[in-house]
Design a protein that fits this description.
single chain, 156 residues, alpha/beta, Endonuclease, Chain A, 5-stranded mixed beta sheet, 13% strand
Length: 156
């Protein structure tokens, strides 16, 4: 049972942004401030990454924990109504994300997946990203790895 009417829930869901979210803008401002130049949502790349740094062959996805099912995150909750529908929807999102990232890696791109929970708080430290961007040894990063993750919990 939902706590709001169908009309209110529909309006709430319609207001969820797909691009230019607060976490995305925060990452873009950090990169731009430190001299990194990028492209936004290029249609020619699989999954239309949020930020692409062509000079470094790097695609950055800034994922919402709820929609993209951040493993172990407290924000990746499950709705109580229409559970089968939501489970199928979430599985499709995760499969699509995995497929797009694998395709980018096969094309020679590096892929960073930044989760909303790691960059949503004002005190969040993402300055490690400034060193990770030019580091060609890092092919794939998913950060943070869980709800209690710190910047040192990066995967490579």
């Amino acid at each position: 049972m939902d706590v709001v009417s169908k009309e209110v829930r529909s309006r709430m869901m319609a207001n969820i942004r797909g691009s230019n979210t607060i976490p995305e803008i925060k990452v873009r401002k950090l990169l731009h401030k430190h001299g990194f130049r990028y492209r936004l949502h290029p249609r020619e790349l699989p999954g239309r990454p949020d930020v692409v740094l062509p000079r470094y062959r790097l695609c950055i996805f800034i994922q919402g924990c709820f929609w993209h099912r951040h493993p172990g995150c407290r924000y990746a909750t499950n709705p109580k109504s229409r559970e089968e529908f939501w489970q199928a929807k979430f599985e499709q999102n995760v499969e699509r994300d995995t497929r797009n990232m694998n395709e980018l890696l096969q094309q020679g791109w590096r892929v960073f997946e930044l989760w909303e929970c790691g960059i949503r708080k004002p005190e969040a430290e993402i300055t490690w990203l400034l060193e990770a961007v030019p580091n060609a040894d890092l092919q794939k990063i998913s950060w943070p790895t869980g709800s209690s993750a710190t910047p040192d919990d990066r995967n490579s």
